[in-house]
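Contributing: when you submit paired examples, paste them exactly as shown. First protein:
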Amino acid sequence: MEKKTIIIVEDDEITALNLKLSLQKYDYNIISICDSAADAKEKIDIFKPDVIIIDISLQESNDGIELAKAIKQHYAIPFIYLTSYSDDEIIAEAIKTEPYGYIVKPFDPSSLHATIQMAIFKFDVENQRFAELNNSKVDEQSLEKMLYARRDADKPVVKFGDAYHIDISKNEIFYNNEKLKLTKKESAIFRLLVAKVGHTISFSQAIDYVWKEHGATENSIRTLVWRLRNKLPTDIIKNASGIGYYIEE
């Protein structure tokens, strides 16, 4: 089996060396040790590692968190935080970057190994689920069939969430029997989410169905969902981290 490659981003030489030696005992290939975010970005571009371990307090600043944000935006690589911090505010900021693990110094090698294995497993499962979602495009006809199957027996009404419903005969969405004023695209993505209640809608599915043309991006969907959420009375739309959105069954 090919060794998993790791980049360590740690500005303390002793900690970085201990990490390297500990991980090599578990047969990982440490392809680079970086002491700054800038150096790490260069090495990530070159080596494309399987996992990145990041010290949150890189150079006694929040450079570790900023690096994690850049990785989240530009690379499909799982990362794990290493830190001596227990400050709630810093941890809360770190959580927003959606790391695949969190190890507190001084680290236990066996716990670090387990965290890396779990990160790799979670990342692989997410990629598999993402691929499956992308292979199941939704067109207008299939969406109408899904909504029709969810309707009340004697009415063209699909109920969902707490006090929401869609009148599929008029393509109108209501909350507590009051019509919601939505744009065409907001209504389209909401209908898509309702038709697939309990299942995640990937970014690519949303782009294909809502835009039906080239030019839209994941950020287009994020902005659209943000606008839609601001118009809804309740927080019914949930995030599927790095994949898309869903409404709970």
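Second protein:
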Amino acid sequence: MNPSFKLILIILISFEISFTRSLTANCVLIAVCLIYLMIHKIKLKTLGIVLLIPVIPAVALNITIAFFTPAQDYHFALVLFSRMFAYVLLGTSFTLINSPIELARSLEQNLHLPSKFAYGSLAAFGVLPKMKSTILTLQKAALMRGITLSYWSPKLYFKALLIAMNWSDELAQAMLSHGYVEDTTRTYAATIPIKSTDWAYMIVPILIIQPILFLLP
């Protein structure tokens, strides 16, 4: 499925379940997402970690609505509980299947977003591993001077921010030296076409979910 269409589909469904109170729809979405992830052979360990992420906020929200509100609406508490898992699994169905470079290329080619947005987002994803190693280097350098920089220390992230700003300047110079010119027609190393099946994959699920959202509890 086209990455842009898939992103639009997930955003639309997430938006709809935010304003409805259908427990059935949430459960259907959770089941469909789990089946989709299993089809793509996501590791059970990874899936287990993903399912653990919303447990604490979902349980806290469920208990608050069910026992500490005047109405004590148990159905709405279950709706909010399941909605948290639906959100996480919908996002996981995108992030674990589609790569950032596929999404950036699709947004640029199919949705005609500016090329600087595409390359900027790719640069941000590419810098993440380097930033992690840089933070560890800063911590070790501080320890050599007898200073402990914890992960919640403002000094650590201020230093990392300065390094990131320097990287952004270097990246901009590298792009210009390789012939990048903003707002000009560009060719693509890899094209991402929009197929007729992409339209079907986006429209059909939206049509199917509507009666479930508005007719079933």
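If you have annotations for the second protein, write them as plain sentences, like these:
DSSP finds nine helices and no strands in the chain.
The two ends are 30 Å apart (CA to CA).
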